[in-house]
Amino acid sequence: MAQRRYRVIKRLPWIDGGRLAPGFNWEGGRYVVYEPGDTIEIDDREVASIYHKLEALDNAGSALLEAVRAKAEAPAQITFVADLHPRAVEWLTRALDEKQRKSGNMRKLVLGILARGEDPTDEDLAAALEEAPHEPLPQELSGYLAGVLRHRVWRKSGRKAPPRTTAEDLFIQSYYHLAVEELQERFAHQKRAAIRRMAKEKTADSLGLSVRTVERVVRPRPWNKSDKA
Fold this sequence. Notes:
By secondary structure, the protein is of the alpha+beta class. It contains 9 helices and 7 strands; from the N terminus they run E-E-E-E-E-E-H-E-H-H-H-H-H-H-H-H.
């Protein structure tokens, strides 16, 4: 590449001479500070980083400065996801999911997975429910969990109910507690026991479960010796 002389229009710290060493370090050379009005000889490859501090002294330098300035100040190009290779889209999606997971934004993560038409893991569902247990669930999340529960109530091979996951139990508990709060506002004159019974019945009816199943899920588990302090 050619070297050209330019006039400095803004104060410019610089290193004259030397060479680029491994690890992007600079070896040798002399440290110089150029003041406005000074002239400096620069390799064409170095103009892009300091073009805003230079003024051309000839037509070739002027053309190079204009080309560098146009490229640096051009609007950023946008690449649409639809234009990417499917594998690149999948990799980017998984990377964004993992970033949400590490940041603890579990509800946002799960809602994004549902929006793609995919099924989140039970672990992600449980974490999403535990993130804000006393806040109303988004409709997309509550609808998905209700559907999952209805499909898992009975095994096709027998009458025994299949074991529920932690996420499902958390959802049942969340649904029940929200039902209790709603019923307390509607029936302020009712006793607490009656409100709880009505909430269990509403939860069971909405989720396709038996009242006994709801009672087992929402009942506090007794402490035993295997519990850790």
